[in-house]
Specification:
By secondary structure, this protein is α/β, with parallel strands linked by helices. It is built from 8 helices and 9 strands. Strands 5-6-7-3-8-9 form a 6-stranded mixed β-sheet, with helices on both faces. Helix 3 packs across helix 4 and helix 6 crosses helix 8.
Length: about 250
């Protein structure tokens, strides 16, 4: 009853076609959860995010959002016109102006304090991702949605960014919904993983999904290596509670 967003029997077609990109999607995310969606290219991961945000039409099914739900969104890509000068401070005030103190607090929270006067085009990839995250956090969201937020970052940058996401969750209490292809980091950072390939193949705790044959069939040797590393680092200190169903859906 306290879910932030719920979808029931969601079906979405590829734009301009009658071909389903997603079918029979039952989804929910609760306050404080970190949920990650994984799947191969073309599996419908970003389409699910866009549908949940209300940016993609539904063929059938429904999406229920909690009343007064605030969502912070970090998109997969942001196209910048490098000929137009724009400081970090100005970027944080688009489309709605925010005060200097609020902007400084958001940047400090994401580990990039003091960048207000820097041009966006001067930032490293890691700095820019943290500025995007700061912008998403400006209005104290109940739910933070991240669509492949570490695209273009090197391995240390990815690990650092996902650690930051965990810290943000603990500091703010916001739930986090991520799309990611970084399997190892997903296993280390998520409470629940959803494996998608046009439908929900399996879902549950990282170890549940790592053991599911559907997940292994999709990711092969990469999945086995990821699970081995996950077990080595985490089985000693994770209490995941009841096991989730990882049977194939549909």
């Amino acid at each position: 009853m306290n879910a932030l967003i719920t979808s029931e029997k969601l079906i979405i077609h590829r734009p301009g076609t009658s071909e389903p990109v997603l079918r029979d999607i039952d989804f929910r995310i609760s306050p404080g959860e970190i949920v990650t969606v994984v799947g191969p290219n073309g599996s419908g991961k970003s389409s699910l995010i866009r549908a949940l945000l209300g940016h993609m039409p539904l063929v059938s099914g429904k999406i229920i959002r909690r009343r007064d739900l605030r969502i912070g969104y970090v998109p997969q890509q942001v196209q910048l016109d490098r000929t137009i000068p724009m400081t970090v401070r100005r970027f944080l005030s688009l489309p709605h102006w925010v005060g200097a103190e609020e902007a400084a607090k958001a940047l400090a929270r994401t580990g990039v304090a003091g960048l207000e006067t820097r041009q966006l085009t001067e930032l490293s990839g890691g700095q820019f991702q943290r500025v995007l995250l700061a912008r998403a956090l400006l209005h104290d969201p109940h739910l933070l949605v991240l669509d492949e937020p570490t695209q273009g970052l090197d391995q240390p940058g990815m690990v650092a960014f996902y650690r930051l996401i965990e810290d943000v969750r603990h500091q703010t209490g916001a739930a986090v919904l991520m799309v990611s292809h970084d399997l190892l980091v997903v296993m280390r950072s998520s409470d629940r993983v959803i494996c998608l390939n046009g439908h929900i193949c399996c879902e549950g705790t990282p170890q549940d999904v790592g053991n599911a044959p559907e997940y292994r069939a999709l990711f092969g040797a990469e999945a086995r290596g990821t699970l081995a590393l996950y077990r080595h680092h985490h089985d000693h200190d994770h209490d995941h509670g009841p096991q989730h169903d990882c049977a194939s859906h549909g």
